[in-house]
Amino acid sequence: MVTYVADSQQISISRACREASLPKSMYYYKMVKDDSETIAKLAALASTCPSEGKDLYYGRIRTQGFKWNYKRVRRVYLLLGLNQRRKARKRLPQRVKTPLAQPAAPGEMWSVDFMSDILTNQRKFRTLNVLDDFNREAIAIEVAYSMPAVRVTGLLEQIICEQGKPKCIRVDNGPEFISKEFNTSCEGNGIKIQYTQPERPMQNGYIERFNRSFRESILDAYLFENVMQVQLLAEEWVADYNSKRRHEALGGKTPMELTPC
Fold first, then answer.
1. What does the alpha-carbon distance between residue 154 and residue 138 come to, in Å, rounded to a whole number?
2. CA–CA gap between residue 186 and residue 182 (Å, rounded)
């Protein structure tokens, strides 16, 4: 403040200090404390215990034998910006690459994925697509404005009640699929979860190809005013896709023709 007044008014430092009611000695005071050790310690704690705050850090510091007082720890804590909210990156377990092979029977492997689009009023919506890898049968397409983990789990449980449960589900590493709700539901139903490796969408290639067909035939072909219109068209398209659309990968047969009686 003193420097600003002196520069803007073209006056001396002494006069600027008098105008600001600040002792001249305070203006020239230079801190002699060396906080490098405190900075290093707090930075190390922040990297190993990112969810803890200054009070817990101070407790750890005192436990380790450092005699810094609370005000010093707090000052350095604020100086480093550790009081700002940080979004912790969730660590994923190691994903094992598995070949994309066609199952030997229906119900052995389902692929599940999301798609998104917008309505005419610019409101976003999502679709939950479920595909049987054996015969490329579209098990279901569910449409909603939002798809949190709880809703995704409920929709899948509803689909399982209607269609039967698969032995395994192939999904990506989205937050809905790594959630506690989803994992608990699959474990309770005796369903194995097979995760693709991050940034490797073709490890879920069957449903990626299905998504392309659905986007070209429905999402890019129509304008929608609400999610009910999307749901109705999706259900009509799924019925046609399963019973009338022939696949080269299935030897020119439809998914229903490949389904055992």
1. 18
2. 6
- The set of residues, in sequence order, having a beta carbon less than 8 Å from that of 111 and lying 6+ positions away, is 130, 131, 133, 169, 170, 171, 204, 206, 207, 210
Is residue 247 predicted with pLDDT exceeding 90? Answer: no
pLDDT score, position 237: 94
Domain positions in the chain = 2-79, 109-250
Cβ pair 83, 77 in contact under 8 A:
yes
> Could you tell me the fold of the domain covering 109-250?
Nucleotidyltransferase; domain 5 (3.30.420)
Output the six-digit token pair for 246.
Answer: 């022939």
Contact 118, 147 (CB under 8 A): no
- 87: CB partners within 8 A, 6+ apart: none
Please tell me what DSSP assigns to residue 99: -
Tell me: the pLDDT tens digits for 40-51? 988 888 888 877
